[in-house]
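Researcher: I've got a protein sequence and the SMILES for zinc ion. Could you write out the 3D structure of the bound complex as structure tokens? I'd like something to compare against our soaking experiments later this week.
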Amino acid sequence: MTEQTFSRELASELATANRILVHHGVLDAFGHVSVRDALNSDHFLLARNMAPGLVTVDDIMAYDLDGNWLDASGRPSYLERFIHASIYKMYPSAKAVVHSHSPSIIPFGVTEVVFKPASHMASFLGAGAPIFEIRETGGPATDMLITDNKLGAALARTLADCPVTLMRGHGNTVVGDSLPEAVFRAVYTEVNARIVAQALVIGQGRVNFLNTAEAERITAANKTQIGRAWAVWKRDVEESR
Ligand SMILES: [Zn+2]
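Model: Sure. Here is the predicted complex with zinc ion in place.
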């Protein structure tokens, strides 16, 4: 068993990310957020198995890229930690991952409705969000959960170079270049789903999404503004404690 060496500051940021995502309705009693360990890129940090809204810095544990936890306490881990492990293993650029069951996104994973950015704040969805079909790897009778590295790798492959994958009948997984970016993207993926659903009704099925060039340009601009969202969202959850 490896001694845990991650920084308490990063663990504290991850605990904050948990509370922000609960505050915005992305996580509820379920789902999780992780961050690659800044001190060891072969490790990532994730809370022990618990409701995200209750996570504190002392609940954070380190894992290796096979999903093994590096903690001698015997505390239980999330069943779906393989989502995180597989993405960090396949994509060295991935620095943070959010897996949620945020409800407004579910309809887009179980229909053929296109999920693209209807708002500039979700421009990172410009290339779309591929749908992960667990039946292709796990067969017709899984419990829908990503509970091993085989399913995790299949999910990571589906992501390709997109920041979001929809998981049919389950939820979604979001990747970021930083913890604030993954949180930002998870929040605005949920917001975009609500906007698209409304636009489909108002527009009787016709929606004028951002085009590729628009999405690329505003994504570059938004990247410089993520710190602003993080600062106020962090303040919000700290004041509510
Ligand atoms: Zn899940």
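Model: The pocket of zinc ion is lined by residues 80, 99, 101, 170-171 (CB under 6 Å). The longest strand covers residues 171-176.
Researcher: Great, I'll pass this along to the crystallography team.
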